[in-house]
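Known limitations

Files may contain more than one protein. Parsers should not assume a single record per file. Below, a two-record file is shown to illustrate correct handling: read the sequence, read the token line, then continue until end of file.
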Amino acid sequence: MQQIYFSKTVDISIVIPLYNEAESLPELMAWIARVVDEHQLSCEVIMVDDGSTDSSWSVVRQLSQAYSGAVRGIRFQHNYGKSAALYCGFELAQGQVVITMDADLQDSPDEIPELYRMVVEDGYDVVSGWKKKRYDPLGKRLPSKLFNATSRGITGIRLHDFNCGLKAYKKKVVKSIEVFGDMHRYIPVLAKQAGFKKIGEKVVQHRARKYGESKFGWERLITGFLDMLSVIFLTKFGKKPMHFFGVLGTLMFLIGLAMAIYLGANKIYRLNNNLPANLITNSPYFYIGLTVMIMGTLLFLAGYLGELIARNSGDRNQYLIEDKI
């Protein structure tokens, strides 16, 4: 078996989240070993088993022994999702450049040297893969195009493929951001908000799935859009929720208050001028104004509670790890 080039100073850390990919892992690892050996790149591979129900973890153990010192593994107690796997992989990563790729052989390890070069020589903080020619069915390609176009418009980051699992990062990028929930699609957005502005893109080869089946369905379009709204809100207001809820609540309260003042002033004016004046409570605007004031107060309180939670939350990324190599 070909040995992977490894040294104490690691050029590349390759983080591979996986779920029920036992068949593809040996082939993927042999391919990675051949590529990094040809280019004399020192490399560590971190495989994160996201609660697989097949023999994936046994395969990871075998690969760790076969590629001594170069393959590390983490096994989750149950399926937490891709973001959790990336987060834990990023924590372990020691390479100058951190590359993420899927375990299903649809991402080509032949892209690794160029991704590494773009980060090290061209100075990119993040390089995202773009599967320009895809082998997925039309039912997946069209929603993906819509999702990516919407993401570009809202985030302002001109990437064609936010969903591509093949990405490269400077080490300080992955050590500076926090990936949780389903935010793995928006790591470039998180990186930009953390101050890493040089984000590039590279056309990468997309290969047809060789083993198993996709773990994602059409619902990814809906959840992806909701995640996009979440990440935009969290990156802008996650640590200062009062700036969103407080401002919106205050504005609504003032609008309601202005309506109440207008109704009161109009009643006083009509009484002073001997004009017919109805009860304020007979006006629908009284109830609209009252409702708006109550909603404004609730939003302000939500912002206050959000500030308390944001300042005391420190366990969003606590995961139960069953085993570790």
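...continuing to the second record:
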Amino acid sequence: MSIERIAVIGAGRVGLSLARAVVRSGRAVAVLGRHAEALPEPLEPATVVWDPVIAAADLVIVAVPDDAVAQVSLTLARSGVVGGRHVVLHTSGLYDRSVFAALESSGAALGSWHPLQTFSLLAGEPGALAGSPAVIEGDPRALVTGRELADLLHLRPVIEIAGDRKASYHAGAVFASNYLVVLADIAARLARDAGADGVSAELFLPLMRRTLANYGTGGVATLTGPISRGDADTVARHLEALEGSERALYIALGREALRLAAASGLDPHAAKTIEQLLY
């Protein structure tokens, strides 16, 4: 199909990022919400009268929080406005097409389209989409439309995964993004405890940027630090300095680091010594 008219349900960060990117692409878009609120230019205000907009749309994108997707699906099914000519995609990284169970009898092509990116601005960040991966699954026609949407908004690569693997994939996204912030905050807190109060928030950012850049080119072979070197004394002193949840997290991540280091050729005796500290 050719995407000409798109309806985006949800005026949150993802929905507005998508809607604003669609406008930039030259296609028609309408944002549907619970309130007739003003939206960032050049978007028209959100409309609360959904049926005529959805009836005219080729593609309906449900960009609401994960826990609300099924309810929106039920609302659409009760309206009777979604039919066989429609493609309906949701942007949840967790759920697959089965969350649209209420729409099964509509004949619409159903699927999921997850832009693998973080959006922090309430007004949306359309520029963050281009160059980001798109992870898709669903009915054959939904997959075709998902790829067309990704091409329209310049997302790449496009990765198709099985619906029953989405929870695992989404957990990976949480580690890569959400927990990266958690780790950065723990590092800053430890720096403050050590006396670097004025610069603690920024202190480790150059190190983190360099580490991610190295990983992007060399993968796990770029692992550095005391465990990769087999420096058991350093690990022991870290454990003495830490307590509570910080110590528990250090141990959990240390075990993973040890696994990677051992697979990369860490001396078995050094690996065994560190293992005794972490278990």
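Parsers that stop after the first record will miss the second one. For reference, the second record is described as follows. The radius of gyration is 23 Å.
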